[in-house]
Amino acid sequence: MEEDIIRAGFREIKRKSEVFGDDAGAFGIGDGWLVVTNDMLVESTDVVASMSQEDIGLRVVTMNASDLAAMGARPLYFAFSVGLKESDERSARKLFRGIQLGLEMYGMSLISADTNQSDELIIDGIAVGMAKSLMLRKNARPGELVCVTGDLGKPLSALLIELKGMEADEGLRKKLYEKFLRPVARIEEGITLADFSRCAIDISDGMVKELKAISEASSAGIVIREEELPISDEVREFCRINGLDAYLIAMNSGEEYELIFTIDRDKISSLEIEFTVIGEVVEEKGVWIKKGGKTERAKDFSWRHFSKELF
Ligand SMILES: [Mg+2]
Asked: How far is the centre of ligand 1, averaged over its atoms, from the C-alpha of 100 (Å)?
């Protein structure tokens, strides 16, 4: 529903740049690309009780930096507009300290900022970076391998503890929450990848949703092999305790900020970053999961919806 309304709205805007609707927009400058993205954080939908003001400030930089990483760009500048509740004005220093942490982490400088008063905390970040070549959602080709950085499932596991009171002892909880509260954008990976891959996306809404975006933009299909998914021992343990399917958690966990990319088989041995091959691009459109000899359509849950409605 929400997506249909947004799509209809954007049809009204006729003047769009040549790269629009990917992780970030871009335009050619010199022999490279200037890459620009904006991503908004809203308290009522994006913030949970465990997040500190510093976590929130850092997060808004991370989610924007991650969109640059997904395009293969090096982050350079950051801008933001923040709406603060009156009651939050005292804690604004902590929020800004979190933003500073993010700027240091990703090598960016603040270029502009605006503050206002609001009924709830809202921060809209804008990030600018440069890329030598772009990785775009539309560039996946049948025969290529599908890969992902890092491991999957911790943020959704932590969210299920946070919102649904699911079980985990203190040690396990700590390990799951680490990535949930302070995810890290894969900047160096993205820059390296741009020399090898033509198609990437970052995981903000959950892997199935991101794969669908690639599948639709590329008019191709993606088959994921369940046994290849990089799921940590912690997520497996959490799923065992709470009677959940670990692969469903891994495939729908959002705000991971890992990069999914496609790549030619013969390029893979020269790629010097850590990643896992999880599947391949095929002709038949859609996102599929190969599980125990059967291939079925991957189930797509919005991860926040997933955690609130299904458990
Ligand atoms: Mg993105």
From this structure: 22
Whole-number Å distance, alpha carbon 145 to ligand 1 midpoint, is 20
23 marked ligand binding residue: yes
Q: Which residues, including other chains, have CB under 8 Å from residue 51's CB and lie 6 or more apart?
A: 59, 181
Q: Is 22 annotated as a binding residue?
A: no
- Domain boundaries of the chain, sorted by first residue: 2-131, 137-309
DSSP H helical segments within 124-228, as ranges? 154-164, 170-181, 187-193, 207-218
How many angstroms does the Cα of residue 190 sit away from the middle of ligand 1?
12
CATH code for the domain defined by 2-131: 3.30.1330.10
Measured CA to CA, the distance from residue 206 to residue 227 in angstroms comes to: 18
pLDDT tens-place string over residues 68-84? 999 999 999 999 999 99
- Residue 91 annotated as lining a ligand binding site: no
CA 9 to chain centre: 24
Q: What is the pTM of this model?
A: 0.95
- Which among 253, 242, 175, 243 is positioned nearest to 208, based on CA atoms? 253
Indicate the SS3 state at residue 110.
strand
In the predicted structure, residue 236 carries a pLDDT above the cut 70: yes
Which of the listed CATH numbers 3.20.20.210, 3.90.650.10, 3.40.630.30, 3.90.1010.10 matches domain 137-309?
3.90.650.10
> What tokens were used for 242?
């709470």
